[in-house]
Amino acid sequence: MNKPNVLVVNDHPGSLLALKTMLQTSPCADEYEVVTASSGPDALRELLDRRFAAILLDVSMPGMDGFETAELIHSHPSCASVPIIFITAHYADELNRLKGFEHGAADYLISPVVPQILHAKIAVFIELEKKTLQLESQKKALAMFNENLQIQQMQDLRKVNAALQAEILERRQAERRACDLATKDALTGLINRRFLTEEIRHAIVRAARQGERIALLFLDMDKFKSINDTLGHDAGDELLIHVADRLRESVRESDYVARFGGDEFVVLMEGIHCYTDAADVARKIIDTVSAPVTLRSQRIRPSISVGISMYPDDSTSGQDLLRCADLAMYHAKENKHGGGVQFYHEELNARLSERRRLEYEMQNALENEEFELYYQPKVDGPSGHICGVEALLRWHHPRLGTLSGGQFMNVADETGQIVQIGEWVIYAACAQARLWLDADPAMHSLPIAVNIATPQIYADLPAVIDRALKLYRLPASCLQLEITESLMIDDVEKATSVLRQISKRGIKIAIDDFGSGYSSLSVLKALPIDVLKIDQSFVRDLGRGLGDNAIVTAVINMALAMSLRVVAEGVETDEQRTILHDLGCDEHQGFLYSVPLPVADLEELVMAAA
Ligand code: C2E
Ligand code: MG
Ligand code: MG
Q1: Atom of ligand 1 nearest to the CA of 376
Q2: Dist. CA 451 → ligand 3 center (Å)
Q3: What would be the CATH architecture of the domain defined by 5-182?
Q4: What's the pLDDT score for residue 502?
């Protein structure tokens, strides 16, 4: 802080010096600086430069006297309150003193000034000035502090605001994500099952009000599992994304397309006039979906089956409509080549309950000894001799008569009973092989091929086979296995390892229904396969000029290259036999030679041929 200043104004140099000296010798002289001016205008100039704690002003000065100077000083706002002590050489009368006070005098001193009095008075003003300066500096500090505070507060406010904005944005994004998660399928971006169920409910309300129809299309991809299994889950996902895009393309903007789960989709259409409208859309979807796609460098033609239910015709409840469309889709699947369309009708319900009944009855079939193995011969191509048999399961159903594998194996598969039934088949086939070994020389050399369902592979198949062979004291050559291409379910490595263990025991393994799935050559090469059985669908069309000769030829050549035996299934005509013979097919099997037979009939057939 600067020292306070005291201004001494006097036109008489001697008085000026005397006053200055007096001030500089005061006991508190080191607390202030003394500045001098020899006239009124000089004093005013000094006042422009600095502030003063007090002014000792000579009253009588030539030109501008003390009073005039005082008036001018006090007229300036920055000096209005500076205390002025008038000094006069004369003994001041009352009137002069009054005049001094009128001109803003703080005090009055008479010359010759008594040093102690001057010291005492000046000390008061210095103290006052010091207080004022202190106050001002505190005020300034406070103002600065306030300003800093404001700046800080502003900055803090800005920070808080920015944080708030970020949080709002984050929360909005989180809300959107949560909404997407709640309403959309992560893989395809289609709406999910939950959201669809809601939309169906709303659509029903609208349709009821406007007296309109709604169509629900339930879609399920054909053979998706097999694509997933053979090409991998990533390829499966890629295919689902392709299909989702194609579905969106095939319908109107206002229709809803949902992924219902796995390879199932649902399309919800409002404002449908008649059944033909819905069927047209279904056909369009099937056509669009079936355009070829390349997955893992394999060209695939996806196909999809469609079941349709209509509001209000089939039901007025959303859940029921979905169930009806699902059921109809299930029946659309009966179209073996896929791509079927089926409207819901009451009869489907009856078929469903029949199926449920079958599932239930199957639980007791083993215990009630209702199963029997039939045997279908396989014939050696070049010689025409029977060279083996395939065991095919029959169910002597108390209510429905004898059912063949095609009529109930899928039920056993879907309910999981196939593992237990499959084990029974292995034991029954081994028991039969033992009987033939013991009693019938003509039957000695006929290995029995047993069909194996995929779940059996994962249920400790080698141990089951070992136990059966051991129980009936059989060489491994008596037994063969037939597995389908779709075997490569979740775990290719596990399946391969199980099959290797079995193969090591000397049991031959055949791939059944070859060509109906999506096996890749690399997978086939990794498996310990001995035989390829060409699917009946290719054999059926042999000689009809539909390109199947080429397929069968290719399969036979490939088998040759891989040192595998080839068996043609479903041989029914002489023409087929001739063609297969010419192509060099190793073995034939089919109704042309024999239908599957009960054991006694088979023995008779073999004896007659021997
Ligand atoms: P698969 O192993 O391909 O068996 C051949 C199917 O074609 C049999 O039907 C057989 O009766 C039929 N078939 C044979 N020759 C001809 C022919 O010339 N023309 C026609 N149209 N069909 C012919 P089936 O017995 O109904 O069996 C169907 C499927 O059920 C079998 O196909 C097999 O996958 C499965 N299966 C049958 N028995 C068993 C079994 O014991 N265990 C397992 N896991 N599956 C079995
Ligand atoms: Mg078979
Ligand atoms: Mg087959």
Answers
A1: 14
A2: 9
A3: 3-Layer(aba) Sandwich (3.40)
A4: 96
- Per domain, the residue ranges of the chain are 5-182, 193-345, 357-605
Q: Which CATH number fits domain 357-605: 3.40.50.150, 3.30.750.24, 3.20.20.450, 3.50.50.60?
A: 3.20.20.450
List, in sequence order, every residue forming a beta bridge with 390; answer none if it has no partner. 376, 449
Q: In this predicted structure, what is the pLDDT of residue 228?
A: 84
Q: Whose CA is nearest to atom 42 of ligand 1?
A: 451
Encode pLDDT of 128-162 as tens digits. Answer: 888 888 888 899 888 888 888 888 888 888 888 88
Low-confidence ranges of the chain (pLDDT < 50): 489
- What number does CATH give the domain 193-345? 3.30.70.270
DSSP 89: S
Residues lining ligand 1, Cβ inside 6 A: 376, 392-393, 404-406, 409, 422, 425, 451-453, 482, 512-513, 536, 569-572, 590-591, 596
From 402, 419, 451, the mutation candidate for ligand 1 (largest count of ligand atoms within 8 A of CB) is 451
Question: For the chain, how are helix, strand and coil distributed in percent, rounded to 5?
Answer: 55, 20, 25
Pocket test for ligand 1, best of 392, 483, 577 (most atoms within 8 A of CB): 392
Quickly count: other Cβ atoms within 10 Å of residue 99's Cβ. 16
Measured in angstroms, how far is the CA atom of residue 584 from the centroid of ligand 1?
24
> How far is ligand 2, taken at its centre, from the CA of residue 449, in Å?
8
Q: Please give the pLDDT value at position 422.
A: 97
CA-derived radius of gyration, the chain? 55
| 304-311/298-300 β-pairing | unpaired
Q: Which pLDDT belongs to residue 92? A: 57
Give per-residue burial for 554-574: e unless 16+ CB within 10 Å, then b. Answer: ebbeebeeeebbbbbbbbeee
